[in-house]
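Retry 2 of 3 after timeout on previous attempt. Resubmitting structure tokens to design endpoint.
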């Protein structure tokens, strides 16, 4: 059974940092592209970063490029998102999932809440 468990969120002041983790099980983690997504209240879920299985050519949304860094540890089946210089507009629930198109998405986990105060 597939499980995606996100953790590491919290409340932080603007300019602060957080590191999110996503533990994946039940999938061949090392061979799939993975991504971080977020959903703010009243908004659609959006992808903010993705990384291929070989860690090449990471993708970043314009809104987070230069502040967020995606990485992965295939030996630990874990995906990370280092978030620096956080802004109030980064406030959202953050999720991880595959990054190979909507038809290949797994069931969403519970996400982890990130709240950035001004």
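Retry 2 succeeded. Sequence:
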């Amino acid at each position: 059974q597939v499980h995606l468990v996100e953790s590491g969120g919290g409340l932080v002041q603007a300019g602060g940092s957080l590191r999110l983790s996503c533990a994946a099980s039940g999938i061949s983690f090392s061979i799939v592209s993975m991504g971080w997504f977020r959903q703010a209240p009243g908004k659609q879920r959006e992808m903010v970063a993705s990384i291929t299985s070989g860690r090449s050519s990471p993708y970043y949304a314009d809104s987070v490029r230069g502040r967020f860094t995606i990485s992965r540890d295939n030996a630990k089946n874990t995906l990370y998102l280092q978030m620096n210089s956080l802004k109030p507009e980064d406030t959202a629930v953050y999720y991880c999932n595959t990054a190979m198109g909507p038809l290949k998405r797994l069931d969403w986990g519970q996400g982890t809440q990130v709240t950035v105060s001004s």
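Attempt log closed. The chain is about 0% helix and 45% strand.
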